[in-house]
Specification:
By secondary structure, this protein is α+β, with helices and mostly antiparallel strands. Helices cover about 35% and strands about 20% of the residues. The protein has a two-stranded antiparallel ribbon. The protein has a two-stranded parallel sheet with strand order 3-4. Helix 1 packs parallel to helix 2.
């Protein structure tokens, strides 16, 4: 399952769309975003998209809404990725090596 949640000017969250499927499925992601546009979510208004990190999500956002909107990875998902890297890192691993502890923040 995946969903789109919007936050209004007062900080209240609203479920905008829900789809069955994986965020790695380009067709499902594109359909969800196209549904938002069809239901008059204005693509010309500047928006911040917060995603879990799927490249498919980022690509679909750019395709449907344009690349003028900032896209941010969810900090909770970044923290989980770093925690897993720490747990599985070999002794003496450096946080500066590609694919290691510190690289979770850059993706």
């Amino acid at each position: 399952m995946m969903g789109a949640v919007g936050v209004d000017a007062e900080g209240h969250k609203h479920v905008l769309a829900i789809r069955e499927g994986a965020t790695e499925n380009a067709t499902v992601v594109k359909e969800l975003l196209e549904d938002l546009v069809a239901r008059r979510v204005n693509g010309d208004q500047k928006r911040l998209f917060v995603i879990h990190g799927s490249k498919v999500l980022h690509t679909a956002i750019n395709a449907i809404f344009g690349n003028q909107h900032p896209v941010q990875r969810c900090r909770a998902h970044i923290a989980v990725r770093i925690s897993r890297a720490v747990e599985t890192a070999p002794p003496g691993a450096s946080a500066n090596e590609p694919g290691s502890l510190g690289s979770g923040m850059a993706r």
